[in-house]
Amino acid sequence: MTEKQLSLEQRVEALEAKIVIIGTGLSAILTELAGVGEAQKVEAEGLWDSTKIQWVEAEGQAGPYEKSDDINNRDFKAMLKDLGEHQGKLTRGDYFYWTFTNGATVGRKKRKR
Question: What are 79-95's pLDDT values in tens digits?
Fold first, then answer.
């Protein structure tokens, strides 16, 4: 192999190494963006997980229920939006959810089957 060919081969190997490094960086960026995109998707589509919301047991005229005003929680915000789109009341899974008149507190009660 000539000196010129060896130099070319070394440059190609160096470029390949840089491509691997760039690819790894891009993969990390895409993974991070996917997480941000997923969070926006959850809010945009009104998807929420009630198990990620802090609930407090309470007692009302109709018996025991749970309530939350976990306003700094993304799932709570998505739930509030969903409730707003359903006139403040909806049933999901095993629970009936409603919005209190203050608009910032949500109650839930296990459905009777």
Answer: 999 999 999 999 998 99
Q: Which residue has the tokens 């969903």?
A: 82
Please compute, for residue 86, the number of CA atoms within 13 A of its CA located in the half-sphere on the CB side. 15
Q: What pLDDT score was predicted for residue 73?
A: 92
Confidence of residue 11 (pLDDT cuts 50, 70, 90): confident
Domain map of the chain by residue range? 1-45, 50-110
Burial 12-40 (b: 16+ CB within 10 A, else e): eeeeeeeeeeeeeeeeeeeeeeeeeeeee
What three-state secondary structure class fits 1? coil
Residue in the block written with tokens 């359903």? 86
8 Å CB contact between 47 and 75: no
The reported pLDDT for the residue numbered 23 is 72
**Strand, coil or helix: 98:** strand
